[in-house]
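Attaching the record inline, Q. Sequence:
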Amino acid sequence: MIKIRAWRCFAVMMALVLVAALGAAIVPARPVKAATAPMVSAGGDHTVGLKSDGTVVAVGNNGNSQCNVSSWTNIAQVSAGHIHTVGLKSDGTVVAVGDNGSGQCNVSSWTGITQVAAGYAHTIGLKSDGTVVAVGSNGNGQCNVGSWTGITQVSAGYIHTVGLKSDGTVVAVGYNVDGRCDVGSWTGITQVSAGGFHTVGLGSVTAVGWNDYSQCNLFDWNLIGATVTTNAATGIGTNSDTLNMSYTMGSYSLVDVRFAYKKSADPAWTYTPWVSKPASGNHAEPLTGLDSKTQYDFRAELKYDTTEIQGSTLQFTTLRIGIASVASATGTGTVTFATSAGSITDLTALATTPCGSLAGLSVPHGYFSFNITNLTPGAIVIITITLPSNMPIGTQYWKCTNGQWVNATSILGGNDGDNILTLTIIDGSQFDADGVANGTIVDPGGPAVPVGGAALPGQPAHRASPAAPTQFKQAQLSLQYLSVNPKQAAANQPVTITTNVVNTGDEAGNYNVALKINGQVEQTRMVSVGPQGTQPIKFTIMKAQPGTYTIDVQGKSGSFTVLGTGSTTSTRSSGGFIVFLALSVLVLAIAVVTMMIFRRPA
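Structure, as predicted:
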């Protein structure tokens, strides 16, 4: 009986352990606050610090209570003025302490603020819609910011105020005797800062204002590195194309650029020569001698000082021998040439020729120049031309040979009113511009119709157009999906947005992808996608202002939320493990009790 009671007690104890474990498992995890980005700000003779938990500390002269910030919470940004301090709260409202003799602390009614700046005796607030508000001393017009729009950043000086616009230009108001507000010509600026009596802009690093201490002598500061972007290849043919890039100089007066390229299946790169550039812009480099129907990788490269940087790697695929396409010079669309033998090279669309214009005739698709190579001397070839729109019956074909127009309509076939024409040319004949049976046919010319479209008399009997040659399906590009990670982020935490550009066509194509945040374009990417290929695109952005941001990438939509101080992100506790452990103990205890109760006495 004593043993049975003892084991009953043990069983009760195990049950209590189980209850305690289950209780611990179902207690919600303690919220984890989203971190605030720490920062510091220096005032006239006091210093303010923002902690990662959204509270604020201050030291220095407190004669006007400018350091009385210990009770502040949920602060996202601080700015110290001469003898006052301003704090931006995570909900877009503003608090201020210190001297208020000019009303510089009258900010309690402000809402929707994304940045604050404290000057000598005035305070500036940037609103989420790009407008600006101001309070405090306005004796020199430093608060006259009510008409500003499209502002992305503000800075307050001693008695002047500066605003950076979304297009990289700058505005300024206030005291301007020494030129500190002469920023109207600035472009390409990414940040501004107002000093006591001067103004600095980051772009090419420029400054205006009082310069007695050389505070504006920033000409040799190379704070911004150059950038280079690989752009899509153009003019892709069977054995040639043109590589393209764009680049910025940053703070440098001279950079060098080049391209690297190779067959996608090969490991080794080939490089074009370095080319020196004195200003930001674009650079193109034509390539020849490429293999037909082959995928190539290429990238742009840039060198400044001793630093070399690379753009992203893109691809293009050369066309197969015997078929080539070009956009018409008149803008009507794409024209495709296919040959029954040899290779089409150097296909070019022309708006004019050395022979001048054709009197009484209209050339709706312009003229074309091309060579057919790799022929047996004296060979006969049939060239099939597929036009973007139908040509009327009675269409002629004229060739420019040795500066004279030659009517080549006698070799024109398929002249039955549709968009397909044929030319039958013998190498070395009168309709081969070089006139020599050398295995190459030179053919500058184009299809023309009489003005008014009337059929010409005496035309030969027409024959039906042949079937269009087998052609590559043009590039067909689209986005496949959109991924946003994380969905919830702390202020200034990177958010990655990923998508894929898919090409279901048989030709390479370019696709310009724009990332919109809350309806505004923030970043763009140009990618080249090979036939039946996929090209991933990744954007990385950071936002400081709490709230929900909508994402749109070419019609694909999503969103993410930036949490303010005090907000929580869900965190799993170790409850599942505790439940497992408790259940294991319980099962073990029951097994032991059962064995002890039912075992036979010794």
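The first strand starts at residue 32 and ends at 33. The domain at 227-317 is CATH 2.60.40.10 (Immunoglobulin-like).

More tomorrow.
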